Amino acid sequence: MSKKLWQPVSIAGLVFFRIAFGLLGFADLLGSWGYHHLYQGTYNPDNYQFKYIGWEWAVSLAEPWMSLFFLTGMALAIMVILGYRYRWSAPLFATFYTYYFLLEKAHYLNHGYFFCWVAWVMACLPAWRAASLDVWRKPTQYRAQIPLWCHAIVPFLMGMVYFFGGIAKLNADWLLRAMPLKLWLAGKADKWLIGPWLELPSTAWVMSIGGAAFDLSITFLLLFRRTRPFAFAWAVAFHLTNHLVFNIGIFPYLSVAATALFFRPDWPLRFWRWLTQRWRKASTWHERWKQRLSELTLDHSPIWQARPRNQNYLLLGFVSLLLVHSFLPLRHHLYPGDVAWTEDGHRYAWRMMLRSKKGHGHYKILDIETQERSHVDPRDSLTPRQYRKLWTHPDMILQYAHHLRDQAAERGQKIAIYAHVRTRLNDGKYQVYIDDKVDLAQVEWQWWKPASWILLPISEE
Q: CA-to-CA distance for 250 and 34, rounded, in angstroms?
């Protein structure tokens, strides 16, 4: 099996994905800059931002530097699309996108996390060695073939997303009650054309069972030549439906592009040849490209990704990648309680569209010295999205309590902070979420220890 990973295959599939990946990265940064930053002020350094624990050093910048940051990231995405100075533009783009991802935890989405992984993987691949400005400038850099592993690693990651997304759907709410799809689809009746279908009771069940079946089987169906075309059509229909119903950003397009890599690596080349026979402009470009490549004697020395001496190190990297992406989706079993309630192990685990949570609350403040009591409603200091996420994520509840503690310390006060929070999961009743007798100012987050101040729900039976 390991020898097969180094068999030479066409570079065309990887080049296709480089272009699609760059376009999607550009679109994501453009949308976030225009809407979340310029319109909502999410990345204004004067506003409070929820940070990923351990990554608090990632801070936003004052204008005009924050806009310049986004524009630089978009420029790097264009360079990736064009394959220009790829060996440094790709890792720089990965750095910019990862930094952007780390700026606001309330905006966590699985597609952003997945995109970070793909960005760093793409920075290590020879995706610029064909159909790129780098090769146009220096044709000796051209390679028609790459090791199979360079083509297979992105669909491998996509397969992990599919499979563990399916494993996560094997729970009673999703399979036996079609929750939370029943709740979400009930509010989609006004959608053009498809609205009447979405509000049918049976639709939630079809999407629930069908979604679990899709995630659990699609990777295996894509691996076999006979079932691959039907599986790909199913994947396109699945992601198109998600886009139309839920509007979840670039994730459907990213998934389709990555899923297309399950086909033979030379499929974009075969499509291009078909196109040049029917479109004169494409034929002209093709001839100019062939002429450019023929101007110099090509270098046939192996690229570093194909050198035998690097195989053991690369195999170690593959195994590490497999272990990480197998452990993270299953780590919630190390904690007591339902992960959908406690959130312990929810992020980075491909638990997509699995629960609907709502909450409300406030903080009670006790001045240790004067014994004066007050309460704080964070609504005015947070964006609507931050405020909505706050009362359903214990780590964010604790972080904002520490923010209030630190603000008081700057004023020379020492305070105790108690969170009064009520939260509901799916169609359940609101229940007390945080132990309001615990002083959160004295609590520190612990990575692998269950938080005793998160109260487990009381059975409603």
A: 16
Instruction: Compute the Cα dihedral for 189, 194, 198, 199 and give only its sign.
Output: positive
CA distance 53 to 182: 33
| Alpha helix (H) residue ranges in 264-382 | 267-276, 280-293, 311-327, 339-342
Cα 293 vs. chain centroid, distance in angstroms?
38
- What are the tens digits of pLDDT across the range 186-197? 878 777 777 788
Provide the b/e sequence for 363-396 (b: ≥16 CB within 10 Å): bebbeeeeeeeeebebeeebbeebbebbbbbbbb
**Cβ proximity of 255 and 235 under 8 Å:** yes
The DSSP result for 225-271, as a single string, is TTTHHHHHHHHHHHHHHHHHHH--TTHHHHHHHHHGGGS-TTHHHHH
**Cβ pair 114, 63 in contact under 8 A:** no
Q: Which of left, alpha, beta for 30 (phi over 0: left; psi -120 to 50: alpha)?
A: alpha
In single-letter form, the type of residue at position 399 comes to Q
Question: pLDDT digit string (tens) for 245-292?
Answer: 887 889 999 999 999 999 999 998 888 777 777 677 666 766 676 666
